[in-house]
Amino acid sequence: MRQETAGSVPSVRHGVGRITLEVRQRLPAWKHGLYLATSLGVGLLISVLVLWASGVGPKGIYEEFVLYTFFNAKGLSNVLVECTPLILVGLSAALAFRVQFWNIGLEGQLILGGMGAAFVALNDYGPPEIRLWLMLAGALAGGALWTLVPLVLKLKLNVNEIISTLLLNYVAFQLLQDRIYGAWQAADRFPHSAQFDAGIERLSRIGFGDVGTGIYVALAAAVVVWWLIDRSRFGMFMTFVGSNARMSKAVGLPVTAVVAGTVLLSGALSGLAGFVVVAGQEYRLTAGFAGGYLFSGIVIAFLARNNPVAAVVVAFLLGGLYVGGQSIQVFYNLPAGVIDLLQAIVVMCVTASELFVRYRIIWRRQ
Amino acid sequence: MTLEFLVNWLASMPVAAAPLLLAALGLIISERAGVLNLSAEGLMLAGALAAAAFYQELGSNPWLGMLGAFLAGAALSVLFAVLVVVMRANQVVSGLAIVFFAIGLTSLLGTLGGWTDTALAGFSKLHVPVLSDIPVVGPVLFRQDPWVYLTVVLLVAVTWVLFRTNLGLKLRSVGHNPHAVDSMGIDVLGIRFAAVVVGGGIVGLAGGYLVLASAKIWVDEMTNGRGWIAIALVIFAGWHPWRALLGALIFGGIEALIPRVLASGAVLPQYYVLMTPYIATLVVLVWAAVNKRDLGAPRALGMPFVREDRR
Amino acid sequence: MGTALSLRDISKSFDGRPALADVSLDIEWGKVHALLGENGAGKSTLMNIAAGLYAQDEGRVFFGDTELTDNDPRHAKSLGIGMVHQHFKLVFPFTVAENVLLANPKGGYGRGLAETKRQIVEQSGKLGFALDPDAPVDSLSVAEQQRAEIIKVLLGGARLIILDEPTAVLTDEEAQALLSTMRVLAGQGNAVILVTHKLHEVPAYTDVVTVMRGGRKIETIASKEATPADLTKMMVGSALAEIKHRPATEHGVVLEVQDATLGRADGAGALNGLSMQVRGGEIYGVAGVGGNGQTELAAALIGLKSLESGTILMEGDNVTAADTRTLRRRGVAFVPAERMAYGLAEDMSVASNYAIAGVDRGEFGGPLWTRQGRIAATTQTAISQFEIAGAAPTTRAGLLSGGNAQKLVLARELREDARLLVVHSPTRGLDVRACAAVHRILMEARDRGAAIVLISEDLDEIFKISDRIGVINRGRIVGEFDAPADRHEVGALMVGHA
Q: Per residue in B19-56, pLDDT tens?
């Protein structure tokens, strides 16, 4: 989320004085942390006020979003269920953003991932013992495939990836509808695919509520991404390319290959998120199984500063918000959109705080 | 294909096209000033709910409903403009945040205010004596709601302001080269702020139109992706209002066509047809890139303005 | 005629580094006044102060009888000071007329535009060239864009016209046309300031010339009394640098460039049939005024740009088409002029910046595991060896001062087995101590047998450490000298009109 700026910036003149922005050269880590914490705090405070105004008092908020969510076995297991795909889309976004590729197509890639897994499952490809692995491979391939067009357009023709990935989300969505209202529609004529075979094509439960082995997949992916970014040679290249592509070229790094590899991997991770949803939660393709993951993925990467370990933490907390949100839907009769609202409030506060991180603001009276 | 089918389809096209065109016009104003605006879906939702609320609370006056739609779109855009123009926040993240802010807020307020799922009378179709009764032409051109015509008026007005006034010249130059404009002493931030807010109000009108002229009801997330189509439409149209009209008729025509074809019992790969706006936009982007054609994108689109000097 | 602009004892520094010291200057109506000096002499800074873009730290600015206090661009413009910048302030997709109207709005748009078009045609007629007011600026040549800028400034009411290095981007014919235009403007009673580093433009086209060097005014004399020899001397100075001549070495030829061309023929910033040979164990100084192809030469040698024609041989092998990665593997190293843009990733640590090339070569573990501990230890050694002050391995590279950042780049690039070192303006913006350190490091590399191409706009530097000097002018090497060379001969070739 970096925007390049330089110089000092006289910006707004008022009758009362003159506000000048000056690019910060150094900001101590503790101050950076303080700004982040303050903005998060302000965001959460506003969120609490919004909930309060909607009829959920402080006690209710504490119970629904803390007590029955994180300090209760049922709640905690639900949080883990919710955060499984969130970890994966968060990692996906973080990877792409690291090389300054604005992958806004997480949702399309997630859909294609789910469809890749369903394609294997519904056609019963391969022996049952390895069916799940084939589904996983199908999901990785589907997600990666969906980044291919924006990637090539960006690298070869310099077409803006924000637009191309965004457009492909809707193409993917219609493709999914075409399948579940068409060739893959279940015999019950509802808009979903036939169910995946139990015991063969479903991720099993790990014995803690509804939590499935998908959580292992997500955590394993997090470890792999951490290793890739923090420990591997490719990861160091990736960070350099994202930080200064011109310099990376001048020191002889394979810039194009690094961007391509990272973006394909980002797509594959979103595809994997589709896999854990269809094979671990829905057990079939449904019309809206991808809903909301685009924004959440970006929120996670943004709040986690593209750091894979932090992404897992943020995804976990966001999972808590999802679970708490679901119970206030039931007990307070509030709509599902409240979760979106709260996420958006927090993100806005944090993006706004970046001004203070990037610039020193000087106000002089005239 | 019978004549009746054709007339029926053509007559329903303006209703589908008008909200897309309104939203696209609003986005064009904002993006011509250099602010990448992904918030359209959210602004439309805000406009839609406000239209329903104003209508239901203020004596069922659809004009007050549209006023509410404009105000809601503009108000939400003030928030967006504070983030991206004043705070120089990332325009992609902020735009998406506005969308989800609006999804949540409208759904919450709609429930709390009790404006959801209530059928409204809204605007009725005009009936012009003689003209409306002309076969074929009558129903297509002269039996529409007032906002179809007002949208065309707005189209002309926006085009005129953008391309035939000093204000428009300034606005467009701010989108292309804010640094050059700044060196002439023109207030870059002020123009961008105003463009985002006014444009946002017009996108809000698009939401109001859906509630008061098209669906005649407010339900959660009723914009149903039209905001995103409008974003595609703006690119498809090369940020030009008249080409946006053409695009809106094509995209709106597709939207209006599908249920009619299906009702006639014909087989149609409807989901592939529904993809066409996005695919067409992608094709236009690729075509422009391959042929090195300038699509008309503002050159500083998406870049926050920060003055660089060394005073 | 009277004085148009009067600058009194102007001083200005950026981040504590002085750019102008006590400069006084008088510009008269009806004359073309040349402001001559090498890059970095302070000419542009001085003019930006006059035009209100920068505020001086000390000194006073008078225009006619009024003193400009708290000057800004709008105020300067309203008084009649107009500046044509090196980087044009044009909105590119717009037409000429729209650009002029934007800068000088009048009345309603339609009438204003029509009136503006009429004025453009009229004004360009007066100046003796044609300019289509309806042409999009995009479609114009650089020279035509410049004319549009001049018209824009004139129609804004400017009577003092400052042209900042206007001929740097023009071909010969275009430059001559522009200089004639300037004479016309002065003939109409305006005051014109021509900021330039091109000596040959002075006698024929200007009335008065002021030479600047190192942020100070050297002298103001009538152009017709100025001999090229005098002007060269004033521009490049006569300080005798300590010359360390090095006897010819037995090393073979490492780099050979034959007839390299790149970029616009005859234009600025292009290679135009450049040939040169550099042996191992020598520092080959490329002397020249900025914008004569230095950046392109560096980019071509390191593989960031490919030649349009010509050949580059490295130790006898043709590497013309090789990319940066391949060249680096052959032992080419690069110290770029813009060290924060091409030399360092400022958001990353000193250790990462130091180690990245080595990581690529597998010196810090295989592809699967990078040995951070070894990176930190090696970086620490480099920090002490190269005396990079204020740096720990974990320090963000962007926080290093200019000199220390440069030492970090050198530390990375100067491996034992480097065969060819392409070094561009290595001491730009550094203090004396840091300069000396950088020079010492380069000479040590030379003594190890590396071939070094030192591209620099700082003549002192070239003279100080080069074993051989090639003068670059308009994209080719126009003369070569063995050290010790005669400073004035080199200077004359640099600023001469080859």
A: 999 999 999 999 999 999 999 999 999 999 999 999 99
Per-residue pLDDT band for A18 (boundaries 50, 70, 90) equals low
Which of C344, C348, C365 shows the shortest C-beta gap to A239? C348
Q: Do B121 and B187 meet the contact criterion of CB atoms below 8 Å apart?
A: no
| d(C-alpha B16, C-alpha B213), whole Å | 10
Q: Which residues contact C16 (CB under 8 A, 6 or more apart)?
A: none
Q: Where does a domain end: C188, C206, C236?
A: C236
Cβ contact B238:B295 at 8 Å: yes
For residues A253 and A310, what is the distance between their CA atoms, to the nearest angstrom? Answer: 28
Task: For residue range A185-228, list pLDDT tens digits in order.
Answer: 998 888 899 999 888 899 999 889 899 999 999 999 999 999 99
Mark whether C267 and C304 lie in a shared domain.
yes
Enter the DSSP assignment of C429.
T
Is residue C442 in some structural domain?
A: yes
For residue C125, the surrounding DSSP H or E stretch is helix C109-127
Q: How far apart are CA B228 and CA B27, in angstroms?
A: 11
- Evaluate whether residue C241 is within a structural domain: no
Q: What share of residues in chain B are helix, strand, coil (percent, to 5)?
A: 70, 0, 30
Q: Are residues C138 and C215 in the same domain?
A: yes
Residue C319 and residue C179 share a domain: no
Distance from CA of A55 to the nearest CA of B (A): 10
pLDDT at A364 over 50: yes
- Rounded CA-CA distance C210/C195 in Å is 10
Q: How far apart are CA C494 and CA C164, in angstroms?
A: 20
- The residues that bridge with C311 in the sheet, in sequence order, are C258
Select from B116, B146, B101, B127 the least CA-distant residue to B56: B116
- Indicate which CATH number applies to the domain containing C40: 3.40.50.300
Picking from C170, C203, C236, the residue at the C-terminal end of a domain is C236
Give the mean pLDDT of C296-305.
Answer: 93
Neighbours of A133 (CB within 10 A): 11
Question: CB-CB: which of B169, B177, B294 is closest to C109?
Answer: B169
How many independent structural domains does chain C possess?
3
Instruction: For residues C46 and C121, state if they share a domain.
Output: yes
Residues of C in contact with A251 (CB under 8 A): 324, 328, 334, 356-357, 360, 412
pLDDT of C458 reads 81
Please check whether residue A247 touches C, CB under 8 A: yes
Judge whether C244 lies within some domain: no
Element (H, E) at C262: strand C253-262
Preceding omega of C484 cis (within 30 degrees of 0): yes
**C117 and C91 share one domain:** yes
pLDDT digits (tens, 9 = 90+) for A243-252: 999 999 999 9
Rounded Cα–Cα distance for residues C244 and C446 (Å): 13
Distance from CA of B297 to the nearest CA of C (A): 10
Query: Is A245 within 8 Å of chain C by CB?
Result: no
**pLDDT score for B185:** 78
Nearest Cα neighbor of C429 from C337, C323, C325 is C337
Structure confidence at residue A8 (pLDDT): 35
Here the tokens at position C297 are 């030469």
Are C114 and C201 within one domain? yes
- Which amino acid, residue B189? L
The residue range of the domain holding C370 is 349-408
CA distance A28 to A21: 18
Shortest distance between the Cα of B126 and any Cα of chain A, in A, equals 35
d(CA B29, CA B37): 10
Tokens linked to C187:
């003939």
The tokens describing A24, both together, are 């910060």
Q: Is residue C89 part of a domain?
A: yes
Does one domain contain both C284 and C163?
no
Strand spans (E) along C29-152: 32-36, 58-63, 66-67, 81-84
* Res A365: pLDDT: 53
Same structural domain for residues C307 and C361?
no
